[in-house]
């Protein structure tokens, strides 16, 4: 019926390619279909859930016989929110957690980076080892520290025994539980701060430092008046970044204390998770989620501004 | 060298202390995972090592740890491939073609915001959505979740590698008659291979580690290692040996990757934070 198109890959010179070629059309629009998969994923799995969140926040979502039932409930969730004291406790604990851990991590990480950048002793392998905590499952870290906090054979009570102090129930006492969780976070994330600071230090311009040295500046003066001001943008961005991520804390607290004892270590993520899945209050959880997203958005906005200021400064 | 030379030695000493603090929990866990229960409880330093905890963890009848490991591996591998392909294509399109500033600005802001908000805020809608479409407690479901969680970082890393790549190479390929797709596959992809390696490693590790979504979007069929460990720790409060073994086992990929590709990992992590 049709002529055998043996010569189809070759176009005769002079013959204009009027025929529509899918391959060529696709290639001309490479720009669009290259970004399409990402857009579909983002649309389906980020925009849709966030829209759904808004719908959920004015509804009561219940489950019956494997079916999901939505019921419009207006401002009911909002009224619950105004009277929710546990959420306030969770916000308070999260703020304490974030402020303490991030400050300690910044100070330790910066000090460590300043010192390590000055040493030529065994740096390559050492840096790899320092980075292990960043890449290890937080759940595994929680498990390890849970064993180290163990009442009977844990390291901390072992240390206390050496000092003739009474053993403590670290993760089970309302005094020590939050600090215990914070110590784990500091152990987990100081390495990350160290990494960012080290990158900042290694890209410092050498001229001002040498000039200050020639002028006879002491180490302390060099640090206080030259190095720290130059590192300011790095420090600020690291601070914002760690703040936003510390705000998300979930895994370790889930494993170490699950928010207890009482509400001593209840943090925002744990509480919302509990409202969603243990109390099956999807609607109210959605409202809390929206509030949390609002708080984060303010931080992200600030972070973005700082980030831009930093790249301009460089 | 910024400061006085004597800091070289002091730095060395402090580095050693930092290394000890970093490694101690791993050693503590490894040692406990090789002990019998009575040796763990007494905290003795002298003990006969045993594999019994690992054997029980993997081969005892109630343990689902082998399934968890397989699930973790399949989910991490698939989401890694998807993130690398989708992020590379998207980053190339954004970085090398003409888009309106409005579009790229909104997209960049949206990706940043999604990357920064606590995962728990969207895990509820994910749960409802996945139940609706039958993705709840399935491996493809968790792959999709890990895909979207890691896509932002992937796009940023590839974009920054592309920004460092001179565009003249691609122009030369175009002049020689290479198609857009051909240029992308034959010129660009090989040249940004280190960036793709960074994306692949970080996605694999983060998917392997991810707990919140895995916890809430799976029940038994597709539970991953972190979910397995958490359930184990809560159900069997005192099986310290097996808990240690599981925690130590879960850290192995991180250690392997750090030994093989420290530089790519550092670059990827720094880019993600300082973008």
Give an account of the 3D structure:
The complex is a heterodimer of chains A (314) and B (275). Chain A is mainly α. Chain A has a single domain, classed as MetI-like fold (Orthogonal Bundle), CATH 1.10.3720.10. Chain A is 70% helix and 4% strand. Chain A is built from 13 helices and two strands. In chain A, strands 1-2 form a two-stranded antiparallel ribbon. In chain A, strand 1 and strand 2 form a beta hairpin. In chain A, 39% of the residues are buried. Chain B has 275 residues and is an all-alpha fold. Chain B has a single domain, classed as MetI-like fold (Orthogonal Bundle), CATH 1.10.3720.10. In chain B, 79% of the residues lie in helices and 0% in strands. Chain B is built from 13 helices and no strands. In chain B, helix 4 runs antiparallel to helix 10. Classes of the chains: A mainly alpha (314), B mainly alpha (275).
Brief characterization of the structure:
The complex is a heterodimer of chains A (314) and B (275). Chain A has 13 helices and two strands. Chain A has 314 residues and is mostly helical.
Keywords:
heterodimer; A: 314 residues; mainly alpha; MetI-like fold; two-stranded antiparallel sheet; 13 helices; globular; disordered N terminus; B: 275 residues; 79% helix
């Amino acid at each position: 019926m049709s002529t055998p198109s043996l010569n189809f890959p070759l176009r005769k010179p002079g013959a204009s390619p009027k025929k529509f070629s899918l391959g060529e059309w696709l290639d001309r629009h490479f720009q669009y279909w290259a970004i399409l998969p990402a857009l579909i994923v983002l649309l389906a799995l980020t925009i849709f859930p966030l829209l759904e969140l808004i719908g959920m926040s004015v509804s009561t979502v219940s489950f019956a016989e494997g079916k999901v039932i939505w019921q419009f409930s207006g401002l009911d969730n909002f009224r619950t929110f105004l009277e929710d004291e546990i959420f306030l406790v969770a916000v308070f604990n999260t703020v304490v957690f974030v402020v303490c851990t991030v400050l300690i991590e910044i100070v330790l990480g910066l000090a460590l980076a300043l010192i390590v950048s000055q040493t030529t002793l065994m740096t390559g392998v050492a840096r790899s080892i320092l980075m292990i905590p960043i890449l290890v499952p937080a759940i595994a870290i929680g498990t390890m520290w849970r064993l180290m906090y163990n009442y009977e054979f844990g390291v901390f009570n072992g240390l206390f025994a050496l000092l003739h102090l009474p053993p403590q129930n670290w993760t089970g006492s309302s005094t020590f539980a939050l600090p215990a969780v914070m110590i784990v976070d500091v152990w987990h994330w100081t390495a990350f701060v160290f990494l960012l600071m080290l990158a900042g230090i290694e890209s410092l311009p050498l001229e001002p430092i040498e000039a200050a040295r020639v002028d006879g500046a002491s180490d302390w003066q060099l640090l206080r008046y030259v190095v720290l001001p130059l590192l300011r943008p790095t420090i600020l961005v690291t601070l914002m970044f760690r703040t936003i991520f510390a705000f998300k804390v979930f895994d370790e607290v889930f494993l170490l204390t699950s928010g207890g004892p009482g509400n001593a270590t209840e943090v925002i993520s744990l509480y919302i998770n509990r409202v969603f899945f243990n109390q099956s209050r999807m609607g109210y959880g959605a409202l809390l989620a929206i509030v949390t997203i609002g708080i984060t958005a303010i931080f992200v906005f600030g972070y973005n501004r700082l980030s831009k200021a930093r790249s301009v400064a460089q | 060298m910024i400061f006085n030379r004597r800091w070289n030695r002091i730095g060395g000493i402090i580095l050693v202390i930092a290394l000890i603090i970093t490694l101690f929990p791993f050693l503590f866990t490894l040692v406990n995972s090789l002990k019998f229960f009575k040796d763990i409880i007494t905290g003795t330093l002298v003990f006969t090592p045993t594999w019994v905890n690992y054997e029980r963890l993997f081969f005892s009848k109630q343990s689902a740890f082998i399934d968890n490991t397989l699930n973790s591996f399949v989910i991490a591998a698939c989401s890694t491939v998807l993130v690398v392909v989708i992020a590379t294509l998207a980053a190339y399109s954004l970085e090398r073609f003409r888009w309106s500033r409005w579009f790229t600005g909104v997209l960049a802001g949206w990706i940043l915001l999604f990357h920064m908000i606590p995962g728990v805020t969207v895990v509820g809608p994910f749960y409802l959505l996945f139940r609706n479409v039958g993705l709840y407690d399935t491996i493809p479901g968790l792959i999709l979740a890990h895909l979207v969680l890691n896509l932002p970082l992937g796009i940023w890393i590839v974009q920054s590698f592309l920004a460092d790549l001179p565009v003249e190479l691609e122009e030369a390929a175009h002049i020689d008659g290479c198609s857009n797709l051909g240029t992308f596959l034959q010129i660009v992809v090989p040249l940004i291979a280190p960036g793709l390696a960074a994306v692949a490693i970080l996605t694999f590790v983060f998917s392997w580690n991810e707990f919140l979504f895995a916890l809430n979007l799976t029940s038994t069929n597709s539970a991953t290692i972190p979910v397995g460990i958490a359930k184990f720790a809560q159900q069997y409060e005192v099986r310290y040996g097996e808990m240690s073994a599981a925690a130590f086992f879960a850290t192995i990929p991180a250690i392997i990757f750090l030994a093989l590709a420290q530089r790519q990992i550092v670059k990827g992590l720094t880019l993600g934070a300082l973008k």
